[in-house]
Specification:
Number of helices: 9
CATH topology of the largest domain: Arc Repressor Mutant, subunit A
Helix content: over 70%
Order of helices and strands: HHHHHHHHH
Largest sheet: none
Distance between the termini: 44 Å
Shape: globular
CATH architecture of the largest domain: Orthogonal Bundle
Length: 185
Amino acid sequence: MEDSKIIDLFFRRSREAIPALAEKYGPLCHSLANGILSDRRDAEECVSDAYLGVWNTVPPKRPDPLRAYLCKIVRNLSITRYRANRAAKRDSRYALALEELGDCVSGGTDPAEEWEARELAELLNDFLGRLPPKDRVLFLGRYWFADSVREAGARVGISEKNASVRLTRLRKALRSYLEERGVRV
């Protein structure tokens, strides 16, 4: 079913809206949540909460693209759950992915740090926009969707070893890119 038809179901408050959303994007949502949480039950709960989040925000919103809107909700809920579980669970692929990026990017909570984080997001978008499509997909697969190195490599048709080497080079390139633009890393 097309996204516009699914959104129309939400606008009509049809009981078929969430099943249609789950049928089209359920595997993607579960993969994303599992990659961050490494716990099937927690991931299932986050995906269900994301469906409810879409139900509560559509209408009045009419997200375009729906896939990105849903993935962002799933990702945010999964990260929130991950942080809540973090003290007890240290084996997540997401933790490993964040550790790899840790020397390039950090986050903050005060207003000045939030402003810097927005600037950093713009720089990251620019960096990603300059990458060849294959490298962009590899980078986003690993660091946005929390794929394992093997899964991220498979997305672009390369071996796990090749993906690991390319990700290392991409992180170095990101670090250089940020340093050239005055970002302390």
